[in-house]
Specification:
The protein is mainly beta and 95 residues long. Helices cover 4% and strands 40% of the residues. It is globular and about 35 Å long.
């Protein structure tokens, strides 16, 4: 039940990001990823009833055990079921 915003210092991270075991949360990762420095990779696991706003990921994004949530991310998507898609918000479209 938290609202988490990553600080701009996270844009200097060189490793992959990871979010695990969240319920009814909002996680906003747009500040570090909007500076043109996306995370190297991303792992989201066991997230329920949440909103996760990521944007671009330079490498793979692994999503496992996501239920009734909205994930805003721009990776390649493989081997999924019961997934709905919408256009990426223009904020994340690279020019």
């Amino acid at each position: 039940g938290l609202h988490i915003m990553l600080p701009s210092t996270a844009s200097r991270a060189t490793s992959s990001g990871s979010l695990t075991n969240l319920a009814r949360c909002i996680v906003d990762m747009t500040v570090p990823t909007s500076t043109g420095a996306p995370f190297a990779g991303l792992a989201l696991k066991n997230i329920k009833d949440s909103l996760i706003i990521v944007g671009h990921v330079a490498g793979p994004a692994h999503l496992t055990g996501i239920e009734d949530s909205i994930i805003v991310v721009a990776p390649i998507i493989e081997d999924c079921s019961k997934v709905e898609f919408a256009p990426l918000p223009s904020f994340y479209v690279r020019q």
